[in-house]
Amino acid sequence: MALFTLENISVAYNKQNILQDFNLEIEEGKFVSLLGPSGCGKTTTLRLIAGFLESNNGKFLYKGKDYTKVPVNKRNFGFVFQNYALFPHLTIFDNVAFGLRLRKASKSEIEKRVASVLEIVNLRGFEKRYPKELSGGQRQRVAIARALVIEPDLLLFDEPLSNLDANLRENMRIEIRRIQQELGITTVYVSHDQEECFAISDQVAIMNKGIIEQLSDPATIYNYPKTKFVADFIGFKNFIEFENRTIHENEIELSKSGFTFIVQKNQANTESDRKIGAIRPDNLVIRPFQELVNPGGNELPGKVKIRTFLGRSYQYIIETPIGDFTVNQEMLVPYQVGDEIILEFPANKMVLVK
Amino acid sequence: MRNRTIYLLLLPGALFLTIFMVIPILLTIGSTFFNEGSFSFEGYLHYFQDKYFIGILLTTLRVSLVTTFICILLGFPVAYYISKVGTRTKVLLLLLSIFPLLTSSVVRSFSWMIIIGKNGVLNKLLLSIGLIEEPLNILYTPTAIIIGLVHLFLPLIIITLIGVLENMDEDLLTAAESLGASRLGVFTKVVLPLSMPGLVIGSILVFVGSFTAYTTPALLGGKQRVISTFLYQNATTLNDWHTAAIVATIMIVITLLVTIIMNQIAYKINPKG
Ligand SMILES: Nc1ncnc2c1ncn2[C@@H]1O[C@H](COP(=O)(O)OP(=O)(O)OP(=O)(O)O)[C@@H](O)[C@H]1O
Ligand SMILES: [Mg+2]
């Protein structure tokens, strides 16, 4: 069941629409990430859900009730800010107790709940310190504790780990996921770190210019992107805009400038508007030119234009009659710039996007 | 080497302050403990038994505290508003709010005389719309002094508050709200404590300024003496420098005390300020 729904939401800053006819539905207990390039509207979406921003039109439904006009302080959502936003004038204890005091909890109850939430984030013994006296990771955990202690109906994170170093980031994301699963709180998480989103989410929404291009589980997004934008964003660097498309029993036949390509059929690529082929640099194969060209297709003659050493593999830019392609290939004896080669497109590795 | 250069650079200023400020102040304070050549507290005892003097002291304290309080009440919303507007409006509003500081306090006091005098603009207006029957007696009362001082010192508190409000992280207010705080709660639990450093500095400036102000109370207070006009009277009209020195010392001590107390209050509200 959907916990909350955004229906045809629009948000504008200075008369410029940032979100337009925006729709999003999130299920109870799920960990959902919003992922997208800088400026695409992730923070805006999150702030709208939290109630910090008002939409010009559209509806925000929470458990079926219209929450569009419910003010921030009545929503009982926990928000974790990118810069933590801890109250500098309060101790860690008082920071965490802030929401409980506003809810008029008794002194003993406050003490009990603050202690137990500090236990969860591994910060017992830090109660008397001030935020300035903590490290970045500790502050982040205080921010999480402060949001958790009010037992929020929804937990919202805006790039909570972007100020931490890589190691700590990895530990913290495991922590966040553990806490979320332990408490079963529905969570919306904003990030522009792809690996981070894929690692901790049940579902990922890829955003572009104020719309959601695809909302699926991480593996589906990784393997079956729907649109060119999503494919490009998650590393399908090579695209072919096909001219003709025929659907056969088990495969789809496509062509471009007289070259034929075969793509294996699946439920995700038969929609009629999927006419762009996409393939990752890792999945293209380069063969020496001497070998026979496969008459069935999926091969192009080409020439090495640029070669870059990446460490584990070489990256080549290959020039072909239908455009340039990027290929990563591991090999002992690399090709030289100017070498004539054959570029092979494995039928099970190419996806079709729109 | 580098440190020594810095000390050398400090020397002229330090010398200047010592010769023209520290030594005179110490001499003044010291002189108050000597009565006809022998050490005694008699000067002070005398003044703290003198009803007239205590009255002046209390009036001055009251006027200064009320002025400070009104300045905070009026200054906070203005500072908050100015800290939120765009840069160009901000410059304009800042200029407007410090404008009173740029006019002479004599001119300002005379303007207030015209406004709040018995036949002044204010009384005429209130009489003509029938709000009052008799003209209000404001001029030459402590109220008149307060009005003049608020006008004089409001800019100080506005400017110091803008300083802290501008640097206040907007997310802190949003965070408080998302944890369930009402507008009022956000103000009392976050904005106010975080404004404390500016508020204390502003309040001390206003209080000390009001407590020691001379022109405004002299012109708007009429026969109502405050401590600085009393001091002036003793020193120049009565030529009683011993009394003047005692009054001056009392002023210094009270100023210091109030400064310390305000700091304490601020520390209570925001220990990290
Ligand atoms: N207060 C504001 N006033 C005007 N425009 C704004 C404001 N906040 C955001 N925008 C604009 O709205 C768009 C979306 O901003 P948003 O902060 O949602 O992006 P984001 O996806 O969170 O980006 P990032 O990954 O960089 O945080 C941007 O183009 C931004 O310039
Ligand atoms: Mg953002």
UniProtKB/TrEMBL annotation, chain A:
A Pfam family this chain is assigned to: TOBE_2
Any one Gene Ontology cellular component term annotated for this protein: ATP-binding cassette (ABC) transporter complex
Ranges where the ABC transporter domain occurs: 4-234
Entry-linked Gene3D superfamilies: 2.40.50.100, P-loop containing nucleotide triphosphate hydrolases (3.40.50.300)
InterPro entries assigned: AAA+_ATPase (IPR003593), ABC_SmlMolc_Importer (IPR050093), ABC_transporter-like_ATP-bd (IPR003439), ABC_transporter-like_CS (IPR017871), Mo/tungstate-bd_C_term_dom (IPR008995), P-loop_NTPase (IPR027417), Transp-assoc_OB_typ2 (IPR013611)
GO MF, one example: ATP hydrolysis activity
This protein's UniProt keywords: ATP-binding, Nucleotide-binding, Transport
Record's catalysed reaction(s): a quaternary ammonium(out) + ATP + H2O = a quaternary ammonium(in) + ADP + phosphate + H(+)
Uppermost EC category: translocase
Keyword Signal set for record: no
EC number: 7.6.2.9
Domain of life: Bacteria
Keyword Transport: yes
SUPFAM superfamilies membership: MOP-like (SSF50331), P-loop containing nucleoside triphosphate hydrolases (SSF52540)
Quaternary structure (record): The complex is composed of two ATP-binding proteins (OpuCA), two transmembrane proteins (OpuCB and OpuCD) and a solute-binding protein (OpuCC).
Protein name: Carnitine transport ATP-binding protein OpuCA
Lineage: Bacteria, Bacillati, Bacillota, Bacilli, Bacillales
TrEMBL record, chain B:
Recorded topology in the membrane: Multi-pass membrane protein
Subcellular location: Cell membrane
One Pfam family hit: BPD_transp_1
Transmembrane segments: 7-33, 53-79, 91-117, 137-165, 186-211, 241-262
Swiss-Prot/TrEMBL GO biological process terms: transmembrane transport
Residue intervals of the ABC transmembrane type-1 domain: 57-262
One Gene Ontology cellular component annotation held by this UniProt entry: plasma membrane
Main subcellular location of this protein, as a coarse class: membrane
Keyword annotations of the record: Cell membrane, Membrane, Transmembrane, Transmembrane helix, Transport
Recorded family membership: Belongs to the binding-protein-dependent transport system permease family. CysTW subfamily.
Listed name of the protein: Spermidine/putrescine ABC transporter permease
Organism: Peribacillus loiseleuriae
